Amino acid sequence: MDTDKPQPTSGPVAPGSEPGGPPGPTVLADSTAMVVAVCVMFAALGAGVGWLVRLLAKWLVTLEHAPWQGPARLLTSIPEPWLTLGVLALGAVLGLAAALFGQHDELAVRVADDEVVLTRRAKPRAFPRAAVQLAFRDGKELVLLGQDTAELAREGCTLSVQRLAGAFRAHGYDWADGDPHEDEFRRWVPDTPGLPIGANALFTARERALGKSGTAEEARELRDELARLGLVVRDRDKRQFWRLVP
Known about the structure:
By secondary structure, the protein is of the alpha+beta class. The chain is built from six helices and eleven strands.
């Protein structure tokens, strides 16, 4: 056994890996216990909101003039205990659905000797070992850099820095404690000189997308368009910062 070769520090070992052989891939994701705890918490919160809605409805129907009295009367017309059981069950189901959606949106990271796979919303993205020059956490995002310092990926990630660093280093990848190109970023302002043709228009469209809810996918697509122009883009408080790839 090669004792100098680092071993995975967390996550299951792939089937077929044998003691003394090369380490299997390391999979980093929220544990089952954490997922269950989050689902239980959100279900309880949802049930609590349902209980408050019941109390609010019963209070509204006692007022002479108040908004939402029609829906309140309709709700309170349901006899007990079905009213209480119904609002508690509906609130719990909605809370559980919100928790499951949130967990589905979390990033899972699979690190192997030959590739890194990032999976979000059941959509995996694979990056060959030869393409990944460096990995690091930038705030709440996991970043993979390519051989030319361009970004291969920038994904929101709630996994701990220690687990990520241990997994990447165990499989021989370079890991940094921060962005080595931190000093190269400049804040974008309208009509910034020296940018590639078309970049200012893309930044303007992306600024509008960042200012609206439900446009995260559009902002991601515009980031990809800017990357094709040789620009690395990151966000801070809905402000855009950029650097040029050498």
